Amino acid sequence: MKRLCLAAGMWHALPGKARIREWAMHKLAKLAGAAIAAWLTASSAGAVEIEYWQYTFKGRVDAIDELIARFQAANPDVTVKHTHFPYDDYRTKVAAAIPAGEGPDVVQLFYGWLDDYVRAGLLRPLPKDRFDPARIDTEFFPIVQAMKRDGAYMALPTAVRSLALFYNKKLLDDAGGGAPATLDELVTVAKAVTKRDDGGNLLVEGITAGMDAQDHHWWREVLVRQFGGQPYSEDGTKVAYNDEAGIDALQFYVDLIQKEKVAQIGFMDEPQAAFRAGRAGLHIDGSFRLGALADVRGLEWGVAELPAHNGIKSNFSSYWVNGVTSKADGDRLDAAYRFLEFITSDEAMQLWVETVGELPAKPSAALADANIAHPQYGPFVKGLEYAHATEFANESEQRRLVIEAVDRVLLQGMSVEESLGTAAAAEQKLLDEFHAGK
């Protein structure tokens, strides 16, 4: 740069070739400066910034970061700011930010929270001319139709989940067994894997346990049905699990801890932590766990469909959706719709399954032969074919009631029948209040 500032006299004193070279460098510098100035002007004048919020989960964070990069490359007039929070703080922060005109323009939420968000006025209905309900009904899994209100969709998923049985290959090989296909086999395998020290302290648990993780879904939508019942009435307004089937299903779960002694609530704090550490033989979890386990060094694991019982297969399916918030308006609203269209596209779904492990929300993509035959995705994909999605009135409260039902049995010595009856009465009151307010 110093030579580009030569005085005129010095310029003429240079040899011919040197003058040409200096002239060329000077021109290039001017052109580059002009291009940068034009880019900065265009960026400040035309760019729209929107904000996307989700809870912190590494695979999801990585996936959204990549999708944002692709979206911005195709939409240079839009900048997307990605913000994420720990799961326990997430709902509170969303509920406080949007009414104050702050926070996300596009927000991720659990499907069971939708009515809370709608009643609070936090979401905009998706315009039918851009998000045609008839097309969505046809292209997406039917469970997504729970996102409709008054004929319009309020939110859409990128992916859907189901449950499956993760198993530690080494522990099962050492115990001389393979992945269990039935509940009876599950108990047998879990007993063979379990190890305790001379003082009776658990060293390796046969199967993880924790209603605060995925076990409340396993009990509600899988075990209750496999023991011959159903969790709720067909219209979802009445609790139905406090019958013989529900009692037998919860007794089976509690027996894993108290009678068979193959599991322990709170072992290594979280069920998934015990499995990641190689201290559990079996672990029931969602397809989102695939990404988190992929890089665990030294852990050899496989995936199988959930064990059947009495010839009955069942599964639980859930999903997180993306909605446009009431905060978005003007140019930000159009940009928010464009970003939502992109993150629910086939391209986004393929990236999501590869990065997070959750399955595409469209059957045409999820049920592809390659996915069904995949050793890890396959059991989850097959599980979607017989899965049920709980229609929650208040997901966190309904989960809490199941957790407390188990705690009363394990910690207070209450019978399964009495404890489940207490939970059912409390949940029925919750459902009555919810449906009365519709």
Give a written overview of the molecule.
The chain is α/β, with parallel strands linked by helices and 438 residues long. The protein has helices spanning 8-13, 16-46, 58-74, 87-97, 114-119, 133-139, 169-175, 183-193, 211-226, 244-258, 271-276, 289-293, 330-343, 346-355, 363-366, 369-373, 377-384, 395-412, 416-436, and strands at 48-55, 78-85, 106-110, 148-149, 152-153, 156-157, 159-168, 195-196, 202-207, 280-286, 301-304, 315-318, 320-324, 359-360, 387-388. Strands 7, 8, 9, 10, 11, 12, 14 and 15 form an 8-stranded mixed sheet that branches. Strands 2-1-3-13-6 form a 5-stranded mixed sheet. A two-stranded antiparallel ribbon has the order 4-5. Helix 3 runs antiparallel to helix 14, helix 9 (211-226) crosses helix 10 and helix 18 runs antiparallel to helix 19 (416-436).
Structure at a glance:
This protein is α/β, with parallel strands linked by helices and 438 residues long.
Chart the SSEs and their pairings.
Layout: H1 8-13, H2 16-46, E1 48-55, H3 58-74, E2 78-85, H4 87-97, E3 106-110, H5 114-119, H6 133-139, E4 148-149, E5 152-153, E6 156-157, E7 159-168, H7 169-175, H8 183-193, E8 195-196, E9 202-207, H9 211-226, H10 244-258, H11 271-276, E10 280-286, H12 289-293, E11 301-304, E12 315-318, E13 320-324, H13 330-343, H14 346-355, E14 359-360, H15 363-366, H16 369-373, H17 377-384, E15 387-388, H18 395-412, H19 416-436
Parallel strand pairs: 1-2, 1-3, 9-10, 12-15
Antiparallel strand pairs: 3-13, 4-5, 6-13, 7-10, 7-11, 7-12, 7-14, 8-9
